[in-house]
Amino acid sequence: MLLLSPPEAAHASVHDAVALVSGRLMTRLAQGVGYADALRTELSKEQENGRLLRLVLKLGLATSRPSLPANESYGDHPDRYLLRLFQDLLYGSSDEEGRPLISFAQAVHALNKLDLGHDGRALLTGREDGAMVLVSYHELKQVLERSFGEIAAAAEQ
Question: What GO terms describe the biological role, i.e. biological process, of this protein (predicted)?
Fold first, then answer.
């Protein structure tokens, strides 16, 4: 605009040029900040998903392995029994009539407590033997980390 102006406006300064483009600059800046916020939100969601996936994988590895090369009775240890009971809490819940309960929110809530090592307690019940165990998420986390550590150590040998 300034370059296309008649010669009498040739005394325009840099301030005049900035005044002409400042509206567009602010719009672009606001769009960039909004985009960065959206990316940060998506990254946070993916990080949360990755954390929970890692926890579910550790739980599955710890409970599904019947033995290790250096420990034939790995699967029969009381630690694995607790983890299997916790898995039943996550995936095997049912109502009074025996119908499966599907509650993603409850499972995610329990996994988050396990990941944090929360002091809250979970009542774990055995399907076959009817055993009932009241255990804190903190204790469950220690059991899971210890069990996974045994598997990781056996994998490195």
Answer: nuclear-transcribed mRNA poly(A) tail shortening
Residue 144 near residue 59 (C-beta atoms within 8 A) = yes
Q: Phi first, then psi: give them for residue 71, nearest 5 degrees.
A: -145, 95
Could you report the per-residue pLDDT of 73-106, keeping only the tens digit for each?
Answer: 767 788 888 999 999 889 878 888 888 888 888 9
Cα(33)–Cα(38) distance, integer angstroms: 9
Handedness of CA 30, 32, 35, 40 (dihedral sign): negative
22-66 pLDDT, tens digit per residue, is 888 899 999 999 999 999 999 888 888 889 999 999 999 988 877
Report field, pTM of the whole predicted structure over 0.90: no
Q: Quick one: tokens of 78?
A: 């009381």
Q: Which amino acid is at 66?
A: P
- What's the CATH code, domain 52-156? 1.10.287.3700
Alpha carbon of residue 3 to chain centroid = 56
Q: Where are the domains of the chain?
A: 14-47, 52-156
Q: Closest Cα to residue 91, out of 78, 79, 102?
A: 102
